[in-house]
Amino acid sequence: MHHSCRVIGFINTAHFLDHMFMLLYPTAVLAMTEVFQRSYGEMLALATGGFVAFGLGALPSGWLGDRWSRRRMLIVFHIGIGASAVLVGLSTSVWMLATGLTMIGVFASIYHPVGTGLLVSHAERIGRAVGWNGVFGNLGVAFAPLITGGLVQVFGWRAAFLVPGVLVILCGLLFATIVSEEQAARPGPGRGRAAARSIPSGILLRALIGLAVITIAGGLLFNAFTIALPKVLDERLAFLQGNAVWVGLMVSAIFSIGAMAQLLTGRALDRMPIKYCLWPLVLEVPLLGCMAWGHDGVMLLAAAGLTFLIFANVTINDTIVARYSTEEWRSRVYGARYVLSFGMSGIAVPLVAWSHTTGEGFVTLFLVLAGASLMVPLGTLIFPCRPQEIWSSDSVEPPESMTRVG
Length: 406
Known about the structure:
Blueprint (H helix, E strand, L loop, with lengths): L2 H20 L1 H5 L4 H4 L3 H6 L2 H9 L1 H10 L2 H20 L4 H15 L2 H12 L3 H30 L3 H20 L2 H5 L15 H36 L7 H26 L4 H5 L5 H10 L2 H28 L6 H14 L1 H13 L5 H10 L2 H8 L24
GO molecular function, one term: transmembrane transporter activity
Pfam families: MFS_1
Organism: Halomonas cupida
């Protein structure tokens, strides 16, 4: 096995773990309200610090990855997030709980700028690599409620943090043993050629502005939707009867749809300009309208459609950064992108908690998200259309006729 394949394998596994740990609490909290004698909204608000740190920590993490070592940062990620989860599992007060959740966010912020930057350096085809990496992250989102619901139901809420915490520490030690600094830092033959080619400054500026607009809207939607969905299903689907395992299973089934979205989007990004892949995202607005008032079958179909578009957007945004940044700056650019995206979680958590306390059953939440999603078509209009993008992950130069920007 070439060392790049080994590195990519660990990177993909870390993506699974990163999203899984960030979403353990939104499901576990359903069983913690009685223990801590606080309402759902009050308990959920304790996760605000972790989600803020998840976003804001991306920029310094990207800087350290570029200047210090991406491999060492990933080792810190594994051990740090595991130790933080153990702290949450041992919590005896809301302050201890909030501290542990915040520390999970701090260490979780390492993965995206560092891991995605390292992935692109070792990838042969960007769209396919980012798509498959997205699948692993999506599976982390999908399995988090299932794993949490199962552990809570059988062993109690503490096990939902203690068991994964110990396992991720062991995974980090395995990564440190198997992948050397040289293997992580040096891409294999034919890899690492995804650095941005000579792009006119005006086109580059349009791409970055379009990315920023789409990332802000997509980040708010991603975080609010993934945090709120367990509670939405718990309230809107009568047949679940409040069973934590069934809620987790249903959430996992919906999020698994995102895996297909990211694979299909990754293949499309290797075959057509990015702008063409952005246009379907405008369907998020009507689907959010259906989520606002839908129940049972209508809500499930809307949730499935939204999941597809939300995770397709993640793959598109990561590919934009890969094709419009250089190897030397890539982790820092990814850091800036994730500050915007996951920084929105600092708004999403209190927004979800506030919407639920209004007594409208998340109607306000989905209407606000629908309004924010109107930014997506705006960002798509700004983004340039460059046919030569589909050549940026290959070793050959694009035909001369494709180098002109239309």
